[in-house]
Amino acid sequence: MNDSVFHRIYDSYHQDLFQFLIYLVQNRQVAEDLTQEVYIRVLRSYDSFQGNSSEKTWLFSIAKNVAIDHFRKQNVRKKRVFDSFDWEAIQLTSPDMRPEDVVQLDDEKSQLLHYLNLCTGDQKMVIVLRYFQQLSIQETASALGWTESKVKTTQHRAIAHLKKLMSKVREGEMIYDK
Predict the structure, then answer these.
(1) Is the Cβ–Cβ distance between 22 and 38 less than 8 Å?
(2) How does pLDDT run across 23-37, given as a tens digit for each residue?
(3) Which domains does the chain have, with CATH numbers?
(4) Terminal C-alpha separation, the chain
(5) Residue 129 to residues 3, 26, 93, 95, 138: CA-CA distances in angstroms?
(6) What's the Cα-to-Cα distance from 52 to each of 12, 16, 58, rounded to whole Å?
(7) Cα separations (Å) of 94 from 124, 165, 171?
(8) Rounded distance between C-alpha atoms, residue 130 and residue 154, angstroms
(9) Coil/strand/helix, residue 26
(10) Are 43 and 6 in contact (CB under 8 A)?
(11) pLDDT for 140-177, tens place per residue?
(12) What sign does the CA torsion over 126, 102, 95, 71 have?
């Protein structure tokens, strides 16, 4: 891969890629690290890119796999944490977004992010790719390695779940905490 190809990919897709990862992990520093990992994988594997999908779809597919790897590593670490955790030496940190990050989001996006966290991981990925990154159903299916039918079904269920949560808040059955 030559420098001009890498710079073109970076310039064209960096913002979308970073937003996708930050929506998934909800931590700016982790999203930055994962974005860097995506670019490392792109550099290593660009020569094997066959063009069966668009570069953007291919890039999001790599990003999805990097995020999944991150969450798997987190789960393994969480399982081992009580065996080796030094309660006196290590500070406990919250997995939630930092307050300054949430303030930057407008209220509507903040509320939607809150509700997205109550969806399944698959539902969250589909909503982020379809509505935040504006990928088509075909591009989303390609990025996730799914059929178009599975994307449509997951999207439908996610939207129904989000509507249900929002109506509960409107009816006072559930409280939205910022």
Answers:
(1) no
(2) 888 889 999 999 999
(3) 3-171 (1.20.140.160)
(4) 44
(5) 27, 15, 29, 22, 11
(6) 19, 21, 9
(7) 21, 24, 30
(8) 11
(9) coil
(10) yes
(11) 999 899 999 999 999 999 999 988 888 887 777 666 55
(12) positive
Closest by CA to 55, choosing from 111, 112, 14, is: 14
Q: d(Cα 156, Cα 150) in Å, to the nearest integer?
A: 10
Which residue intervals of 26-147 are DSSP H helices?
Answer: 28-45, 55-84, 99-104, 107-116, 121-127, 137-144
User: Which residue is associated with the tokens 């937003």?
Assistant: 19
Under 8 Å between Cβ of 141 and 150: yes
- CB-count burial class (<10 Å; 0-12, 13-18, 19+) for 153: middle
Tell me how far the alpha carbon of residue 94 is from its chain's centroid: 18
State which amino acid sits at residue 11.
Answer: D
Structure tokens at 160: 């129904």
- Look at residue 89 and tell me whether its pLDDT is greater than 80: no
- The candidate with the shortest Cα–Cα distance to 56, out of 116, 125, 114, 138, is 138
Backbone CA torsion sign across 161, 164, 169, 174: negative
